[in-house]
Amino acid sequence: MPLDTSKFNEAVDIYTKVIQSDSENSQAYCSLGNVLYILERYEDAIEAYSNACRINLHFAEAYYNRGLSYTKLGNFSQAQPDYAQAMLIKPDIAEDDYFRGNSCVLLARYEEPLKEPDKTAEAHTSFGNALLDNECFAEAADMFKQALWIDEHNPRAHFGYALALLHLGNIAIALKHHAILKMLDEKRAEHLASYLP
């Protein structure tokens, strides 16, 4: 069923009027960008998010969503710094690590997302998942291994590490992590079992 754009176009008009009456309203620019993104008007969305970032240099959502818009246009080199800036402002956004990871994977710049020393196991795990999705199995295994070094009880990291190892043909160690996963998260372990030989 095609998207009914009438309500979204109405929202564009409303946010545009708000901006006309208050040209320094960063939230209105960001909200306008969100609606334009839904309408797949990514270049217009980027312009709206850029205005939000210009007005409020600490607007994590605007940087993040501008990064998503650049990603939709295939402009990964511009998306990556926006994801990085969003993480600097609001480090607990786990999804940022995933999307930033995807943009770096596509640029073959695996080391960049995790230069900051305060990265958590979840950040490594999210980046590992991005690497897995892009079939960079050795690099993904390394990210999951680092996540497990930080938090050995992280079920997402055990799952991802085992999956990466299976793709690399290292079944023995994958089985070891499957056994650990059974103790940590039975549902995830059952899901992993579907990949085991």
The CATH superfamily label of the largest domain reads: Tetratricopeptide repeat domain
Q: Strand portion, in percent?
A: under 5%
Helix content: over 70%
CATH architecture of the largest domain: Alpha Horseshoe
Instruction: Tell me how many strands there are.
Output: 0
Tally of structural domains = 2
Largest sheet: none
**Class computed from helices, strands and strand pairing:** mainly alpha
Which series of helices and strands comes N to C? HHHHHHHHHHH
Task: Give a quick summary of the entry.
This protein is an all-alpha fold. The protein is built from eleven helices and no strands.
In terms of topology, how is this protein built?
Elements: H1 6-21, H2 26-38, H3 42-55, H4 60-72, H5 76-89, H6 94-106, H7 121-133, H8 137-150, H9 155-167, H10 171-184, H11 186-193
Helix pairs in contact: 1-2, 2-3, 2-4, 3-4, 4-5, 4-6, 5-6, 6-7, 7-8, 7-9, 8-9, 9-10, 10-11
